[in-house]
Protein backbone atom coordinates (compact mmCIF):
# COMPACT_ATOMS: atom_id res chain seq x y z
CA UNK A 1 0.00 0.00 0.00
CA UNK A 2 2.96 2.32 0.67
CA UNK A 3 4.23 1.66 -2.87
CA UNK A 4 0.79 2.46 -4.33
CA UNK A 5 0.63 5.67 -2.29
CA UNK A 6 4.14 6.73 -3.40
CA UNK A 7 3.42 6.07 -7.09
CA UNK A 8 0.05 7.88 -6.95
CA UNK A 9 1.46 10.76 -4.89
CA UNK A 10 -1.16 10.43 -2.14
CA UNK A 11 -1.24 9.27 1.48
CA UNK A 12 -1.66 5.65 2.57
CA UNK A 13 -4.97 6.62 4.13
CA UNK A 14 -6.21 7.92 0.77
CA UNK A 15 -5.22 4.64 -0.90
CA UNK A 16 -7.17 2.75 1.78
CA UNK A 17 -10.24 4.94 1.26
CA UNK A 18 -10.19 4.39 -2.51
CA UNK A 19 -9.74 0.61 -2.18
CA UNK A 20 -12.55 0.35 0.36
CA UNK A 21 -14.90 2.39 -1.83
CA UNK A 22 -15.43 5.17 0.67
CA UNK A 23 -17.25 8.35 -0.32
CA UNK A 24 -15.89 11.86 -0.86
CA UNK A 25 -12.88 10.84 -2.98
CA UNK A 26 -12.56 12.86 -6.18
CA UNK A 27 -12.62 11.03 -9.49
CA UNK A 28 -9.16 12.35 -10.31
CA UNK A 29 -7.62 10.98 -7.09
CA UNK A 30 -9.43 7.66 -7.47
CA UNK A 31 -8.13 7.36 -11.04
CA UNK A 32 -4.52 8.00 -9.95
CA UNK A 33 -4.76 5.40 -7.19
CA UNK A 34 -6.41 2.79 -9.40
CA UNK A 35 -3.77 3.30 -12.10
CA UNK A 36 -1.05 2.77 -9.49
CA UNK A 37 -2.82 -0.34 -8.23
CA UNK A 38 -2.95 -1.72 -11.77
CA UNK A 39 0.71 -0.89 -12.57
CA UNK A 40 1.97 -2.49 -9.36
CA UNK A 41 -0.45 -5.45 -9.56
CA UNK A 42 -1.47 -4.68 -5.98
CA UNK A 43 -3.93 -7.06 -4.26
CA UNK A 44 -5.73 -5.85 -1.15
CA UNK A 45 -5.37 -8.23 1.80
CA UNK A 46 -8.85 -8.50 3.30
CA UNK A 47 -7.68 -10.92 6.00
CA UNK A 48 -5.23 -8.32 7.28
CA UNK A 49 -7.90 -5.62 7.17
CA UNK A 50 -10.16 -7.76 9.36
CA UNK A 51 -7.65 -7.58 12.18
CA UNK A 52 -8.84 -4.03 12.78
CA UNK A 53 -11.57 -3.92 15.39
CA UNK A 54 -15.01 -3.79 13.76
CA UNK A 55 -13.69 -4.32 10.21
CA UNK A 56 -15.98 -6.07 7.71
CA UNK A 57 -14.91 -9.28 6.01
CA UNK A 58 -16.88 -8.52 2.80
CA UNK A 59 -17.97 -12.16 2.85
CA UNK A 60 -21.12 -14.08 3.77
CA UNK A 61 -21.75 -17.77 4.33
CA UNK A 62 -24.61 -19.67 2.69
CA UNK A 63 -25.61 -22.97 4.30
CA UNK A 64 -28.04 -25.09 2.26
CA UNK A 65 -29.30 -28.64 2.64
CA UNK A 66 -28.00 -29.96 -0.69
CA UNK A 67 -26.43 -27.77 -3.35
CA UNK A 68 -27.01 -30.50 -5.97
CA UNK A 69 -30.78 -30.07 -5.50
CA UNK A 70 -32.12 -27.74 -8.24
CA UNK A 71 -34.07 -25.70 -5.67
CA UNK A 72 -30.97 -25.09 -3.53
CA UNK A 73 -28.87 -24.36 -6.60
CA UNK A 74 -31.33 -21.69 -7.75
CA UNK A 75 -31.38 -20.14 -4.28
CA UNK A 76 -27.58 -20.06 -4.17
CA UNK A 77 -27.28 -18.47 -7.60
CA UNK A 78 -29.72 -15.71 -6.67
CA UNK A 79 -27.90 -14.98 -3.39
CA UNK A 80 -24.57 -14.95 -5.20
CA UNK A 81 -25.83 -12.53 -7.85
CA UNK A 82 -26.98 -10.01 -5.23
CA UNK A 83 -23.74 -10.11 -3.27
CA UNK A 84 -21.52 -10.15 -6.35
CA UNK A 85 -23.01 -6.83 -7.38
CA UNK A 86 -22.29 -5.52 -3.86
CA UNK A 87 -18.68 -6.73 -3.94
CA UNK A 88 -19.24 -9.36 -1.23
CA UNK A 89 -17.82 -12.88 -1.53
CA UNK A 90 -20.14 -15.86 -0.98
CA UNK A 91 -18.93 -19.01 0.80
CA UNK A 92 -21.05 -22.16 0.52
CA UNK A 93 -21.70 -25.32 2.54
CA UNK A 94 -24.20 -28.21 2.38
CA UNK A 95 -25.66 -30.01 5.40
CA UNK A 96 -27.35 -33.10 3.90
CA UNK A 97 -30.04 -32.60 6.58
CA UNK A 98 -27.47 -33.25 9.35
CA UNK A 99 -27.49 -30.86 12.30
CA UNK A 100 -23.82 -31.60 13.02
CA UNK A 101 -22.84 -30.42 9.55
CA UNK A 102 -24.85 -27.25 10.03
CA UNK A 103 -23.06 -26.52 13.31
CA UNK A 104 -19.67 -27.26 11.71
CA UNK A 105 -20.40 -24.91 8.79
CA UNK A 106 -21.50 -22.10 11.11
CA UNK A 107 -18.32 -22.58 13.17
CA UNK A 108 -16.11 -22.61 10.06
CA UNK A 109 -17.67 -19.43 8.68
CA UNK A 110 -17.52 -17.73 12.07
CA UNK A 111 -13.80 -18.41 12.31
CA UNK A 112 -13.46 -16.62 8.98
CA UNK A 113 -15.43 -13.73 10.46
CA UNK A 114 -18.12 -13.56 7.78
CA UNK A 115 -20.44 -10.57 8.02
CA UNK A 116 -23.61 -12.62 7.63
CA UNK A 117 -25.18 -16.04 7.13
CA UNK A 118 -28.03 -17.31 4.96
CA UNK A 119 -29.16 -20.60 6.48
CA UNK A 120 -31.55 -23.35 5.32
CA UNK A 121 -31.63 -25.13 8.68
CA UNK A 122 -31.13 -28.83 9.24
CA UNK A 123 -31.14 -28.55 13.04
CA UNK A 124 -34.36 -28.18 15.01
CA UNK A 125 -33.21 -25.61 17.56
CA UNK A 126 -31.27 -22.57 16.40
CA UNK A 127 -30.90 -20.95 19.83
CA UNK A 128 -27.18 -21.79 19.63
CA UNK A 129 -26.81 -18.95 17.12
CA UNK A 130 -27.53 -16.26 19.72
CA UNK A 131 -23.81 -15.98 20.48
CA UNK A 132 -23.09 -15.40 16.77
CA UNK A 133 -25.67 -12.62 16.65
CA UNK A 134 -24.22 -11.04 19.80
CA UNK A 135 -20.81 -11.14 18.11
CA UNK A 136 -22.24 -9.06 15.23
CA UNK A 137 -23.09 -11.72 12.64
CA UNK A 138 -26.32 -10.99 10.75
CA UNK A 139 -28.49 -14.04 9.96
CA UNK A 140 -31.38 -14.69 7.58
CA UNK A 141 -33.13 -18.06 7.40
CA UNK A 142 -34.45 -19.40 4.15
CA UNK A 143 -37.03 -22.05 3.13
CA UNK A 144 -37.63 -23.00 6.78
CA UNK A 145 -38.29 -20.61 9.69
CA UNK A 146 -35.93 -20.59 12.67
CA UNK A 147 -36.83 -22.27 15.95
CA UNK A 148 -36.20 -20.51 19.27
CA UNK A 149 -34.54 -17.58 17.52
CA UNK A 150 -36.08 -14.25 16.48
CA UNK A 151 -34.38 -13.34 13.19
CA UNK A 152 -35.35 -12.64 9.56
CA UNK A 153 -36.64 -15.49 7.42
CA UNK A 154 -38.00 -16.02 3.91
CA UNK A 155 -40.20 -19.05 3.16
CA UNK A 156 -42.80 -20.28 0.68
CA UNK A 157 -46.43 -20.65 1.75
CA UNK A 158 -46.01 -24.42 2.06
CA UNK A 159 -49.32 -25.25 3.68
CA UNK A 160 -51.48 -23.27 1.26
CA UNK A 161 -49.45 -24.51 -1.72
CA UNK A 162 -49.90 -28.15 -0.71
CA UNK A 163 -53.60 -27.64 -0.14
CA UNK A 164 -54.01 -26.16 -3.63
CA UNK A 165 -52.25 -29.17 -5.15
CA UNK A 166 -54.49 -31.70 -3.37
CA UNK A 167 -57.57 -29.56 -4.11
CA UNK A 168 -56.60 -29.82 -7.78
CA UNK A 169 -56.56 -33.63 -7.61
CA UNK A 170 -59.91 -33.67 -5.80
CA UNK A 171 -61.46 -31.43 -8.48
CA UNK A 172 -60.33 -33.96 -11.09
CA UNK A 173 -62.30 -36.71 -9.37
CA UNK A 174 -59.81 -38.31 -6.98
CA UNK A 175 -60.60 -39.35 -3.41
CA UNK A 176 -57.89 -41.91 -2.62
CA UNK A 177 -54.83 -39.65 -2.77
CA UNK A 178 -51.51 -40.98 -1.46
CA UNK A 179 -48.95 -38.71 0.20
CA UNK A 180 -45.20 -39.04 -0.44
CA UNK A 181 -43.24 -36.68 1.80
CA UNK A 182 -39.93 -35.71 3.32
CA UNK A 183 -38.85 -36.29 6.93
CA UNK A 184 -41.67 -35.32 9.34
CA UNK A 185 -39.32 -33.25 11.51
CA UNK A 186 -38.58 -30.87 8.60
CA UNK A 187 -40.91 -27.90 9.13
CA UNK A 188 -41.70 -27.36 5.44
CA UNK A 189 -42.55 -31.06 5.06
CA UNK A 190 -44.87 -30.95 8.07
CA UNK A 191 -46.62 -27.85 6.73
CA UNK A 192 -47.16 -29.54 3.37
CA UNK A 193 -48.66 -32.56 5.12
CA UNK A 194 -50.98 -30.23 7.02
CA UNK A 195 -52.02 -28.69 3.69
CA UNK A 196 -52.78 -32.21 2.42
CA UNK A 197 -54.93 -32.82 5.50
CA UNK A 198 -56.66 -29.44 5.06
CA UNK A 199 -57.71 -30.27 1.50
CA UNK A 200 -59.06 -33.70 2.46
CA UNK A 201 -60.99 -32.29 5.42
CA UNK A 202 -62.52 -29.53 3.30
CA UNK A 203 -63.77 -32.18 0.86
CA UNK A 204 -65.06 -34.45 3.69
CA UNK A 205 -62.52 -37.14 2.83
CA UNK A 206 -61.15 -39.18 5.72
CA UNK A 207 -57.36 -39.13 5.96
CA UNK A 208 -55.99 -42.69 5.69
CA UNK A 209 -52.56 -43.11 7.31
CA UNK A 210 -51.99 -46.32 5.32
CA UNK A 211 -51.46 -44.31 2.13
CA UNK A 212 -49.05 -41.81 3.70
CA UNK A 213 -45.29 -42.36 3.32
CA UNK A 214 -42.75 -40.00 4.88
CA UNK A 215 -38.99 -39.84 5.22
CA UNK A 216 -36.57 -41.73 2.99
CA UNK A 217 -32.84 -42.37 3.20
CA UNK A 218 -32.35 -41.85 -0.55
CA UNK A 219 -34.10 -41.87 -3.93
CA UNK A 220 -34.02 -45.68 -4.18
CA UNK A 221 -35.78 -46.00 -0.83
CA UNK A 222 -38.40 -43.49 -1.96
CA UNK A 223 -39.03 -45.45 -5.16
CA UNK A 224 -39.33 -48.77 -3.30
CA UNK A 225 -41.75 -47.27 -0.77
CA UNK A 226 -43.89 -45.79 -3.53
CA UNK A 227 -43.93 -49.10 -5.43
CA UNK A 228 -45.00 -50.89 -2.25
CA UNK A 229 -47.74 -48.34 -1.61
CA UNK A 230 -49.10 -48.61 -5.15
CA UNK A 231 -48.93 -52.43 -5.12
CA UNK A 232 -50.83 -52.97 -1.88
CA UNK A 233 -53.59 -50.41 -2.50
CA UNK A 234 -55.31 -50.70 -5.86
CA UNK A 235 -57.97 -48.15 -4.86
CA UNK A 236 -55.51 -45.25 -4.82
CA UNK A 237 -55.86 -43.16 -7.98
CA UNK A 238 -53.58 -40.18 -7.25
CA UNK A 239 -50.37 -39.14 -5.52
CA UNK A 240 -49.35 -35.86 -3.97
CA UNK A 241 -45.53 -35.76 -3.83
CA UNK A 242 -44.50 -33.12 -1.31
CA UNK A 243 -40.82 -32.63 -2.17
CA UNK A 244 -39.05 -32.07 -5.48
CA UNK A 245 -36.36 -34.73 -4.89
CA UNK A 246 -39.11 -37.35 -4.41
CA UNK A 247 -40.90 -36.64 -7.70
CA UNK A 248 -38.55 -38.59 -9.98
CA UNK A 249 -38.59 -41.71 -7.71
CA UNK A 250 -42.40 -41.56 -7.62
CA UNK A 251 -42.62 -41.35 -11.43
CA UNK A 252 -40.17 -44.27 -11.75
CA UNK A 253 -42.32 -46.31 -9.37
CA UNK A 254 -45.45 -45.64 -11.43
CA UNK A 255 -43.70 -46.62 -14.65
CA UNK A 256 -42.16 -49.77 -13.19
CA UNK A 257 -45.66 -50.94 -12.27
CA UNK A 258 -47.21 -49.81 -15.55
CA UNK A 259 -49.52 -47.36 -13.77
CA UNK A 260 -48.19 -44.12 -15.24
CA UNK A 261 -51.24 -43.37 -17.45
CA UNK A 262 -53.77 -44.20 -14.71
CA UNK A 263 -52.54 -42.52 -11.52
CA UNK A 264 -52.61 -38.74 -11.30
CA UNK A 265 -49.60 -36.97 -9.76
CA UNK A 266 -49.02 -33.46 -8.44
CA UNK A 267 -45.56 -32.61 -7.11
CA UNK A 268 -44.42 -29.80 -4.86
CA UNK A 269 -41.85 -28.54 -7.32
CA UNK A 270 -40.43 -31.02 -9.78
CA UNK A 271 -37.16 -31.79 -11.48
CA UNK A 272 -35.30 -30.68 -14.59
CA UNK A 273 -37.14 -32.11 -17.58
CA UNK A 274 -40.40 -32.68 -15.68
CA UNK A 275 -42.19 -30.84 -18.49
CA UNK A 276 -40.71 -33.20 -21.11
CA UNK A 277 -42.01 -36.53 -19.79
CA UNK A 278 -45.39 -37.87 -20.93
CA UNK A 279 -47.59 -36.75 -19.37
CA UNK A 280 -45.74 -33.72 -18.08
CA UNK A 281 -45.55 -33.40 -14.31
CA UNK A 282 -48.09 -31.01 -12.79
CA UNK A 283 -46.42 -29.09 -9.97
CA UNK A 284 -46.93 -26.57 -7.22
CA UNK A 285 -44.11 -24.22 -8.19
CA UNK A 286 -42.04 -22.19 -5.77
CA UNK A 287 -39.78 -19.31 -6.77
CA UNK A 288 -36.32 -20.18 -5.40
CA UNK A 289 -34.68 -17.30 -7.27
CA UNK A 290 -37.02 -14.79 -5.64
CA UNK A 291 -36.47 -16.47 -2.28
CA UNK A 292 -32.69 -16.25 -2.59
CA UNK A 293 -32.78 -12.70 -3.88
CA UNK A 294 -35.13 -11.57 -1.09
CA UNK A 295 -33.00 -13.19 1.62
CA UNK A 296 -29.81 -11.68 0.20
CA UNK A 297 -31.32 -8.19 0.02
CA UNK A 298 -32.52 -8.44 3.63
CA UNK A 299 -29.08 -9.59 4.76
CA UNK A 300 -27.33 -6.86 2.79
CA UNK A 301 -29.61 -4.26 4.38
CA UNK A 302 -28.74 -5.66 7.81
CA UNK A 303 -25.04 -5.48 7.03
CA UNK A 304 -25.48 -1.82 6.18
CA UNK A 305 -27.22 -1.09 9.48
CA UNK A 306 -30.84 -1.53 8.44
CA UNK A 307 -33.98 -1.80 10.59
CA UNK A 308 -33.48 -3.78 13.81
CA UNK A 309 -36.91 -5.43 13.71
CA UNK A 310 -36.85 -8.97 12.20
CA UNK A 311 -38.93 -9.58 9.09
CA UNK A 312 -40.90 -12.66 8.03
CA UNK A 313 -41.50 -12.95 4.29
CA UNK A 314 -43.87 -15.61 2.92
CA UNK A 315 -43.82 -16.12 -0.85
CA UNK A 316 -46.75 -17.39 -2.89
CA UNK A 317 -46.68 -20.63 -4.87
CA UNK A 318 -48.63 -21.38 -8.05
CA UNK A 319 -49.86 -24.48 -9.85
CA UNK A 320 -48.50 -25.40 -13.27
CA UNK A 321 -50.76 -27.95 -15.02
CA UNK A 322 -48.84 -30.19 -17.43
CA UNK A 323 -50.97 -33.32 -17.65
CA UNK A 324 -50.14 -35.67 -14.80
CA UNK A 325 -52.38 -33.85 -12.35
CA UNK A 326 -55.24 -33.72 -14.84
CA UNK A 327 -55.70 -37.48 -15.28
CA UNK A 328 -59.37 -38.01 -14.50
CA UNK A 329 -60.39 -39.82 -11.35
CA UNK A 330 -63.47 -42.02 -10.81
CA UNK A 331 -65.48 -39.23 -9.17
CA UNK A 332 -65.23 -36.74 -12.02
CA UNK A 333 -68.58 -36.65 -13.78
CA UNK A 334 -68.68 -35.52 -17.41
CA UNK A 335 -70.87 -32.58 -16.46
CA UNK A 336 -68.21 -31.33 -14.04
CA UNK A 337 -65.13 -31.55 -16.24
CA UNK A 338 -62.43 -29.12 -15.16
CA UNK A 339 -60.81 -27.05 -17.87
3D structure, described in words:
With 339 residues, the chain is of the alpha/beta class. It has 3 domains: 2-44, 434 Repressor (Amino-terminal Domain) (Orthogonal Bundle), CATH 1.10.260; 59-156 and 288-315, Rossmann fold; 158-286 and 320-336, Response regulator (Rossmann fold, 3-Layer(aba) Sandwich). The protein contains 12 helices and 12 strands. The strands form 2 sheets. The protein has a 6-stranded parallel sheet, sandwiched between helices. Strands 7-6-8-9-10-12 form a 6-stranded mixed sheet, with helices on both faces. Helix 1 (2-8) packs across helix 3 (27-40) and helix 8 runs parallel beside helix 9 (187-202). The termini are far apart. The mean pLDDT is 90.
- Overall, the morphology is elongated
Percent in helix: 40-55%
Report low-confidence residues grouped into runs of 5 or more.
none
Q: What's the CATH architecture of the largest domain? A: 3-Layer(aba) Sandwich
Number of helices: 12
Estimated share of beta-strand residues:
15-25%
Oligomerization state: single chain
The helix/strand order is HHHHEHEHEHEEHEHEHEHEEHEE
Could you please say which CATH topology of the largest domain applies here?
Rossmann fold
The strand line-up of the biggest sheet is 2-1-3-4-5-11
Largest sheet: 6 strands, parallel
CATH superfamily of the largest domain: Response regulator
Question: What structural class do helix, strand and pairing data support?
Answer: alpha/beta
Count the E strands: 12
Question: Which CATH first-tier class of the largest domain would you pick?
Answer: Alpha Beta
Amino acid sequence: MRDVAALAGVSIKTVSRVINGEKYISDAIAKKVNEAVHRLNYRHNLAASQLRAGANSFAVGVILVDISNPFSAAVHRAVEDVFREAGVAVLLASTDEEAEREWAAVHAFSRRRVDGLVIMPASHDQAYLKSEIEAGTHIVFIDRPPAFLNVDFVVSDNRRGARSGVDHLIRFGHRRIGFIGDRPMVSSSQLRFEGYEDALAAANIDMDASIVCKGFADASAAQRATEDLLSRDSTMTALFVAQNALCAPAIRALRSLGKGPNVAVVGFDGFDGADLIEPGLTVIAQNPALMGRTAACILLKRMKGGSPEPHARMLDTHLIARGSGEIRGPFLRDSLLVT
